[in-house]
Design a protein that fits this description.
Layout (H helix, E strand, L loop, with lengths): L1 H8 L12 H13 L16 H10 L6 E5 L2 H13 L5 H24 L3 E5 L4 H16 L16 H7 L26 E7 L5 H8 L6 E5 H10 L7 H16 L5 H13 L6 E5 L5 H11 L4 E6 L2 H10 L8 H24 L3 E5 L4 H22 L7 H47 L8 E2 L2 E4 L2 E3 L2 H8 L1
Parallel strand pairs: 1-2, 3-5, 3-6, 4-5, 6-7
Antiparallel strand pairs: 8-9, 9-10
Helix pairs in contact: 2-3, 4-5, 5-13, 8-15, 9-11, 16-17
Length: 475
Amino acid sequence: MTQILNYILKGTDLLDPLVISTRKATTTLMSIIQNVPDAEGFVISGYPRNMRDTGEYLENVGRLDGVVLINWKEKTLENQIEYGAKFGEVILELAKLELSNFRQYTTPVLEYFDYKGMLYVIEGERPPDPVYEDFAVVFKQILHADNRIGQRQLKSAGSYREYKISGRKSVQSALPPVIHNPSTPLPSPPRYHVVWIVGGPGSDKFNRVDKTLMYHPTWRIVHTGNLLWEFLSETKENENNERTEMRETLKNILYKGDLAPQNLVLDLIEERIAMHKEAEGFLITGFPRNIDQAAAFQERFDVRPMTILVDCSELELGRNLGRRKGRMDDNLEAARRRLEVYREFTLPLLKSMDEEDRLLVVDGDTEDNEVVEELKETLNQEIARLELSATGEDKDGLEVVVQDVSDEKTEEFIDKLEDEIDQEIIELEDEIAETYEQVEAVLEAPNGIGPKLNGHAKVNGVIHEGVEEIIEIAH
C-alpha cells in the first residue's frame, strides 16, 4: 500500500502519504481486492497507517485474520535510511517522514491488535532467511487461528450500548439503597449537587467535561484520577508510616491498572469537595468504578447522583489509549487490565444505574466537537433539573414548569390573536360595505356608469376595472 499511496502522490508537491484521506486509501484498497475475485486472501503491507484507517477498514471490509510486525530497533532503521540515501535507493526526507509517521500513528494500531491477541512479532534484525522462515510459520498460524475479526465483531463490550444489548448479568446486579445505622442520626442534606461522569479508559471524559465547565462557573470538577496522582506525588513532613505504605501500595496498583482502595478514593474526594465551600455542585469524573464504590459514596454523602456516561466502543478506547504517554499506567499491560476492570465491574454498575433511570448516555464515538456538544447539552439539562429540585420541585419539576409556562403563553397568544382577528373582520366588513355603496352609486348614475376615464369607471377619484365583476362578487 505504501507504493500505491506514493504513486497517487506522484506528480504533486506532496510527500506525506498521510495527506491522502482514510476514505481514499480504503477505497483504493477495496478496489484492488475486488479486481482479483479469484484470490483466496490478501497480504497487505504498509496498511493501516493509523487508527482511523483501522476503523474504516473494519467497518467497510470487516475481515481480518492477523497482523504481522517485522520488528526493528529505531536506530537500526535510521542507519538504514541514511545508508540507502547515500546510494540513491531512498529519498531521505520521505523515508524519515514515513518513520516518524509510523512511530506516532501506527504504534497505537499495533497496541490495539496486540490487545486483541492478533499481533505476531517477527524479529527483523537478522539475516533475511530466518526472517522469511519465521514469516512462513506465522502465516500458517494465522490461517489456522480462530481469533479473526469478522463483520459482526466490530464493537465489543467496551461500549455500554453493546453490553446492554447482550443482556449479560452481573452477580451483583443491583445497586443497594442508602441505609443508615438507626443508632446514628441522619446527616443533613448536602448543600451541593453531584453528578458522576463515567467512561471507559481512554474516553477522555475529564478533558471533555472541562470544556463544558465554562457554562457553569459555580460548579467544580473533581477528577479522581488526578487526585490519586497528586496523592502519589505529595510529600509531607512527619508523615506516619501508614500513609507512606499506602502511597507505595497505590503506586503498584495504578501501574498494574487495578482499582485504587475504595476508602482512599472517598477520602480524597471528600477532602477536595471541602476545599470548595462556595461551589454549588461537583462533576466527579472517573467515579464510581463499581457498585461497591457507588454504594459507599451514597452512604457517606447521603446522595444518589445521576450518572453521565461517555460511551465509546473498544476501537475508540484503543485509539485514545494509544495516543497517551507520560503516566505510569500508560503501558500495554495496564491498559489491558483497565479495560478488563471496566468490563467486569463498571458495565454492571451502569446497567444497574440504567435500570434505576439514573443513567444518561453520550455517544463518545463521534467527532470530539460533537461529543463535547452533546455532553454540554446533557449537563445543561441535568444541572437545570438539580437546581430546580433544590427549590422543592419533584424530579420532573423542570418539565412541568416549562410545560405550564408554555401553556400559559400559548393561551395568551391565542386570546390576543382572536381579538386581533375579530377587529380585522369588523374593519374588513366596514370596508366592503363602503365599497359596495360606492359601486351602487356608480351604477345609479346616468347611462348606468359613473364618470369615465380611459374606459375605466371612476369612483371618488379611484379607478376600478371590471365593475360588473366586483358587483357579482359582492352579491
